[in-house]
Design a protein that fits this description.
The N and C termini lie far apart (40 Å). Helix 1 packs across helix 7 and helix 6 (188-197) crosses helix 10. The chain is built from ten helices and 14 strands. Strand 5 (109-115), helix 5 (138-157) and strand 6 form a beta-alpha-beta unit. 38% of the residues lie in helices and 18% in strands. By secondary structure, the protein is of the alpha/beta class. The structure holds uridine-5'-diphosphate (UDP). Uridine-5'-diphosphate binds next to helix 6 and strand 8.
Length: 325
């Protein structure tokens, strides 16, 4: 199978490229390296460029592909509030350019990275696919818009897609070759582990006054490898002729920020300095997925559902240069 991975040099994309290579796919990565890393693309062909560049897309897609996976989005909620134009341009307009180029070259199978942020403030948990989608920030709205575009494109053009709504992706390649390298890093698990390793002085806990048992926010952390295996199954379902679908992806179990810190202290054997900080704008108290659709329809089975395992793999990545750990 020939797959184009747009954004394949980023955190999730790079793990996906590796998995596709292991599944004997012929992979091409297109990435502008604005946030990705060339050395994270472990197999296949690499093209440095922008998905807004239609001529470049034409030259790549004219070689013939079975499917496109799209990971090239901006993902910071706070930044999306400050700079919405940047988010609508890249996450919506540039995605339309990609979809148009796919249509022009007869590539009609698409895997899209969506997000729990399309749901907005939860009306109930765990969140299943029928939960109303009322995103509360530009980031969530860009992803929700593309989901609607995809539904229309299937009806009008027969372009079939799977939108995978990630809850909290975390962890690292179990074989230790890849991990999370955002700059700036904003995600809880790597930040907590940087506080454990000494790369940061402390971790700030954003709010202790939420309506949760310990007052800190609850999230559903999903191992990067399990996320990628869901993409692989989604791709196989499309190739098998399945209609377009959206799936929520999480373990169905929530952990509080404090529980993540406690787990990290146990896994690393280090004391982590915690500073209590104000709430971060736009953070719902509790986001937990009901992923039973993905289990039933895709046959998805998470292998690394245990939070300690997720943290352990991320810790191995964090300390990869530290021979004393
Ligand atoms: N969080 C925190 N301190 C940090 C970063 C994150 O307390 O330095 C909290 C954040 O408020 C949220 C949870 O950790 O409740 C997960 O945040 P993250 O940014 O990793 O993912 P998100 O849930 O925003 O997708």
């Amino acid at each position: 199978m020939k797959v184009l991975v747009v954004g394949g040099a980023g955190y999730i994309g790079s793990h996906m490229v590796k998995m596709l290579g292991q599944q004997a796919c012929s992979v091409t990565t297109l990435d502008d390296l604005s946030s990705g890393h060339r050395d994270a693309v472990l197999c296949g062909e690499f093209v440095q460029g922008d998905m807004a560049d239609r001529a470049l897309l034409d030259s790549i897609l004219s070689k013939g592909f079975d499917a496109v996976m799209h990971f090239a989005s901006f993902i910071q909620v706070g930044e999306s509030v400050q700079q919405p134009a940047k988010y609508y341009q890249n996450n919506v307009v540039n995605t339309l350019t990609l979809l148009d180029a796919m249509r022009a070259h007869g590539v009609n199978q698409f895997i899209f990275s969506s997000t729990a942020a399309t749901f907005g403030e939860p009306q109930y948990t765990p969140i299943d696919e029928r939960h109303p989608q009322q995103p509360i920030n530009p980031y969530g709205r860009t992803k929700w818009m593309v989901e609607q575009v995809l539904a229309d494109f299937e009806k009008a053009y027969g372009l079939r897609s799977v939108a995978l709504r990630y809850f909290n992706a975390a962890g690292a390649d179990p074989e230790g070759q890849l991990g999370e390298r955002h700059d700036p890093e904003t995600h809880l698990v790597p930040l907590v582990l940087q506080a454990a390793s000494g790369r940061r002085p402390h971790i700030s806990v954003f709010g202790r006054d939420y309506d949760t048992p310990d007052g800190t926010c609850i999230r559903d952390y999903i191992h990067i490898q399990d996320l990628c295996s869901a993409h692989w199954l989604a791709l196989q379902s499309l190739v098998g002729g399945a209609a377009s679908q959206a799936y929520n992806l999480g373990n169905g179990q929530g952990f509080s920020v404090q529980e993540v810190i406690d787990t990290a202290e146990r896994v690393t054997g280090r004391k982590i300095t915690v500073i209590d900080s104000p709430r971060r704008a736009g953070d719902p108290a509790r986001l937990v997925a009901d992923a039973s659709q993905a289990r039933q329809k895709l046959g998805w089975q998470p292998r690394y559902a245990d939070l300690a395992t997720i943290v352990e793999h991320a810790w191995r990545w964090e300390t990869r240069f530290d021979k004393s750990s």
